[in-house]
Amino acid sequence: MPRLAIAFVLLIASVLPVRAENDVVRLASLEWPPYSSESAVLGGRSIDTARRALAHVGLKLEVVYLPWARTVQAGTTGVGFDGYLPEYHSDAIDAEAAGNRCLFSRSIGRSPVGILERREAPVAWSKPADLTPHLFGVVRGYVNEAEFDSMVSDDRIAVIESVDDAINIRMVAAKRIRAAIIDPHVYDYLSRRDPTLTALRQNLQINNRLLTTHDLFVCFRPTRRGAELRSLFNQGLDSLGVGISQADDSQAADRS
Question: Helices 45-56 and 224-240: crossing angle, nearest 10°?
């Protein structure tokens, strides 16, 4: 082949997207129904969306379910993992914004963040600063709401950390904490399917004011393969008709 033709082929190859090294994408996740669960139909809403998006670009999804702290650890540093899901967007964990651990996909769904309380003792508040008198239950490692989390970090809001939402539900019912931060859909799912939690429903409720609503994402590793997989994954989401999230818009602004 003439040298000019060889150079042209190499040039074209350099600008074409590199295909994934293999057709299996291995992601860590957690038991967080209805979004992700080994026992949920199709693995949960987030898992099903991710699987269908990857299938559109010829890739298969393998999910390993772990406790949340191990999910993040495995997805970011575990051998053989390409990332984890589902995750809320946060600049603190956004590789492109802060040089940290995550390349966020486009949104794969939404998750409201509410306050679980006892019916007899509703929490009156209009802004996160009003929550400072109370002791809250949170799940270790979860992003909740930016101002709330900032006040927790500054010791302006007292919290007890637990390993999962079910423990927090029980602690609210037992009056060990005033309230707990939880996705209302997660609370509804858990409390309707676990008989020990169902019995507590009559005394509990979700506060009528939400803290916030987050988009949910796949967190890909900030590597060449991770960037490639994110691009392919987003193409798959396009095929599903899933739109660009606010987090993607902010990332685009950061790169411009």
Answer: 100
225: how many CB neighbours lie within 10 A of its CB?
16
Question: DSSP for 33-49?
Answer: TTTB-TTSGGG-HHHHH
Rounded distance between C-alpha atoms, residue 204 and residue 122, angstroms:
9
Alpha-carbon distances of 4 from 13, 15, 201, rounded to whole Å: 14, 17, 74
Per-residue pLDDT tens digits for 104-131: 999 999 999 999 999 999 999 999 999 9
User: 165-173 and 184-193 are packed helices; what angle lies between their axes, rounded to 10 degrees?
Assistant: 80
Q: Model-level pTM greater than 0.70? A: yes
Give 217's pLDDT tier (boundaries 50, 70, 90).
Answer: very high
CB neighbour list of residue 27: distance below 8 Å, 6 or more residues apart: 50, 61, 62, 63, 64, 75, 81, 82, 83, 84, 85, 218
The b-or-e profile of 153-174 (16+ CB within 10 A means b, else e) is eeeebebeebebbbbbbbbbbe
Q: Quick one: which of 102, 105, 106, 81 has its CA closest to 93?
A: 102
pLDDT in tens, 67-76: 999 999 999 9
How crowded is the C-beta side of 46, counted as CA atoms within 13 Å? 30
Contact 131, 207 (CB under 8 A): no
Residue 112's Cβ-count burial label (10 Å; 0-12, 13-18, 19+) is: middle
Beta strands in 22-172 (DSSP E): 24-29, 60-65, 83-88, 103-104, 109-118, 135-139, 158-162
On the question of a cis peptide bond just before residue 86, with omega within 30 degrees of 0, the verdict is yes
Pick from 26, 131, 137: nearest CA to 85: 26
